[in-house]
Amino acid sequence: MNSRPHKQSMSELKLRRLVEHNQRLREDLARPRVKVSEASASLIRYCKQTKDHLPSPHSAAFAFVPTTPFFPSTNQHTLESP
């Protein structure tokens, strides 16, 4: 007689975990893949076609004076546009 008939045995638990893991692996395998060279080319194309809205370090909007102990507040640390 089994004292706990409703509880699964260890082998059944292991089998269920393996089946679930196998299912996740099959889902990963079915996911569409892109070659690294294609993804890189796509990223380069996007960067060339899309305007960057952040100011560049050479623009006047980027000039600032850091106020930390590591950067004393002198004019030698400001960034100026050429």
Concise summary:
With 82 residues, the protein is mainly α.
**Overall outline:** elongated
What distance separates the N and C termini? Answer: 89 Å
- Mean of pLDDT: 78
For the sheet with most strands, the description reads: none
What portion of residues belong to β-strands?
under 5%
Q: What's the helix-strand series?
A: HH
Counted by DSSP, the helix tally is: 2
Low-confidence segments: none
Q: Helix/strand-derived class? A: mainly alpha
Give the fraction of residues assigned to helices: 40-55%
Q: C-alpha Rg, in Å?
A: 30 Å
Query: What's the count of strands?
Result: 0
Walk me through what this model shows.
- By secondary structure, the protein is mainly alpha-helical.
- The protein is built from 2 helices and no strands.
- The chain has helices at 10-30, 36-49.
- The radius of gyration is 30 Å and the shape is elongated.
